[in-house]
Amino acid sequence: MLFSVVNMKLRDFYPSLDGLCDDMGVDRIDLEKALNAVGYEYDEYQNKFI
């Protein structure tokens, strides 16, 4: 569920992961670790976790 919500917000509202994290008060490293732990990595070019 986290994967889907983050990718939806990146697609619809934020031009970058840094923008999302800054606006939502989320630590980027913690978010990436949580999604990396279940097999997803952030693709900066596509601006989404894949």
Can you describe this structure?
This protein is mostly helical. It has one domain. The chain has 3 helices and 2 strands; from the N terminus they run H-H-H-E-E. It has helices at residues 2-12, 17-24, 28-36; strands at residues 42-43, 48-49. It has a two-stranded antiparallel sheet with strand order 1-2. It is globular.
Q: What is the number of helical segments per DSSP (H or I, 4+ residues)?
A: 3
Determine the structural class based on helices, strands and strand pairing.
Answer: mainly alpha
Instruction: Estimate the helix proportion, in percent.
Output: 55-70%
Please list the strands of the largest sheet in the order they lie side by side. Answer: 1-2
- How many discrete structural domains? 1
What would you call the shape?
globular
Largest sheet report: 2 strands, antiparallel
The pLDDT mean sits at 98
Q: Any low-confidence stretches, pLDDT <50, length ≥5?
A: none
- State the distance separating the first and last CA atoms: 14 Å
Radius of gyration: 10 Å
Helix and strand sequence = HHHEE
Query: Approximately what portion of the residues adopt beta-strand conformation?
Result: 5-15%
According to DSSP, the number of beta strands is 2
